[in-house]
Amino acid sequence: MKTMKEQFTISIYTENTIGILHRITTIFTRRHINIESITASESEVPDIHRYTIVVCQEDEKVRKVVKQIEKQIDVFKAFYHPNDEVVRQELALYKMPTQAFSNTREVEKIVRKHHARLLAVEPEFTIIEKTGYKTETQALFDELKAYGLLEFVRSGWISISKPMKEFQDYLKEVEEASKNK
Amino acid sequence: MKTVAVEKQDEKQAEQFCSGAHALVKALIHEGVDTIFGYPGGAIMPVYDALYDFEGKIKHHMSRHEQGATHAAQGYARQSGKPGVCLATSGPGATNLITGLADAQLDSTPLVCITGQVPSQMIGTDAFQETDVVSISMAVTKWNVQVTKAEDIPAAIAKAFYIAKSGKPGPVLVDITKDAQFGKCPDTYERCDQVRSYIAKPKIDPLAIEQAAQAIAEAKKPLVLFGHGVLLANAKDEFREFIEKSGMPAAWTILGLSALATDHPQNVGMLGMHGNYAPNKLTNECDLLIAVGMRFDDRVTGDVTRYAKQAKVIHIEIDPAEIDKNVKADIPILGDCREALQRLIPHLQRKDYQDWYATFSALDAEEQEQVIQRDLFPDESAPLSMGEVIRHLSDISKGSAVLVTDVGQHQMVAQRYYRFGEWNSNITSGGLGTMGFALPAAIGAKLAAPHRQVVAVIGDGGFQMTLQELGMIMEAGIAVKILILNNQFLGMVRQWQDMFFEKRYSSVDMSNPDFLMIAKAYGIEGQQVSERADLEKAMHTFLSHPKSYLLEVMVGKEDNIFPMIPSGAAVDEIRLK
User: Fold this and answer.
1) Distance CA B244, CA B224 (A)
2) What is the pLDDT of residues B517-528, one digit of tens each?
3) Which end of chain B is more exposed for a tag (fewer CB within 10 A), N or C?
4) Are residues B510 and B467 in the same domain?
5) pTM for the whole thing?
6) Could you give the number of structural domains in chain B?
7) Mean pLDDT value across chain B
8) Active site residues of B
């Protein structure tokens, strides 16, 4: 049994109802588990939302939390995966003064080196977009800082698990089971 | 495409509108509700106004505090098997429900609580009596929702009832804004029998049944533990057959008590902190533990790292989150326990566990000698004991009463010594341990089972937490019997201070009022007993009185409850003194 803390991605499929986020987060709060990142938006199925929550915890604790999440009435299904079972990505946006690009070629070089792209160019500012792991978005951040970075934002993880079963199949199973009297 | 007939029906229905408040009351009637508990106030007034139109169909009992309404609804639900219904206003009315909701959540009691809320356009303005009860109650409800439109009320109520009573039952809360109560709503109602994201009753895995049957066949020293799930699944006959056909010994959690008669020869007693000596000791000796509808609460397991490690564990449980939560199950049977038992029964063969039973008997004899004898038949010179009071209660009521207990020493004694003869006759606050539970819960239980003798057994501390609910008894003439076991202490806390805090009695010595005068103020007769010679006669008077009656018995001040598994100890470290 694993007792070491490690990073896990929890994926949750829910009805799109008011308050379900609160119900889910209190499950973590009650057990004193810090949420490292959280992302929520509509899933591949209309009206069903997908949450991606990243925590650093022992396997057993995460397994129990996932069961408590799945117990919530408006939750269809919850999964958890260690890092080696998911392909994940974060998105970061950087706001730079446009002048920084005209003063020197350095900034453009940095952007190219990091495989980032320009998302918007305005007279006053330019927005750079970079997807990658936190170490990668952080590396770009560290380099841009010296050239007058104005604002920075990083999203939570989104991740896709490697096992091949589709959520649609789970959905059918849950819906079928919900008819059982 | 709609047919002409359907369109005509639509038109007809469209003409039939009622207010949201009326729709709510009609929804309750559709759900078979005839008794509700509550307390009026500003934000729920349209509903109370609608109730006025349905007098005779729904009887509203006004508690004197909303907490009392929740416990009364719990008592009603536990005795009737139907969801208990509570009404309260916004703000303080709603927050006063929280203790009852938490209690119902931990003890899997179906409750539908309906709260009024400030008008929707005022939400978030810190309006008068506005609290965010949906957020506040989230951690203590199975499901909750806020309704801000009249037309959403019937569906919300239908869903609330379905969720409250299905699967592992629990409390739900529907918060309805005042404008929704006033608003117009189509006068139709459809019951809910499915929520697509919610599996109320998992399908039982036939392989698990086979594995369990084989484990039972191989076991030499099996022990069945039964909990609330047996009662909730209404598995009266199935459980008895399961036990009798197999010949296995069975021990109970306090929520499972009365699912099998106390005097059944295979009933080996109570589990947990103040349970019986034999089943606790032998939990750590059995080779197979079969948990039926129970959740391995820490008061049952003691130190869980040293709990039944030698045994194979079969866990029959409807809630997937309970499987492997506290105790790892070798063979989990996920599903309704009635169904699971039905499927297991054909596999069973009666076996002779004579030697195994003999180990129980030997330990029972030790407990009998060192604890029970003294509890039930104290020396003439000793003060009255709680145990002998319960013995008289049990004998004179022939074990046929519904016992509603509060929390503390008296609770343990009542459950240890009352000889329950009838199914579903023990109502107590188990998981939350809510002092003040018994009086209002007994009121609810009596309303659910008017022909049964309902006795609330309460300590002097707990009684003072909700004694205002004597008002409910007075108002509706509810013949609840109230037995106060008065040791002039918060007995259980005092016992712990005695045993684990060097007898430093801190805030446990009670300054009590005259309970008989309080009862009298509510028109309830009663008497106090402090002499052994008077007890039996008083108990007869108490039980035969046609109306509510309060019997206060002055018992030994510093009696301790044994056996005891001290906090942090293993079940087999249970102490007899």
Assistant:
1) 12
2) 999 999 999 999
3) N
4) yes
5) 0.95
6) 3
7) 97
8) 66, 128-129, 178, 492
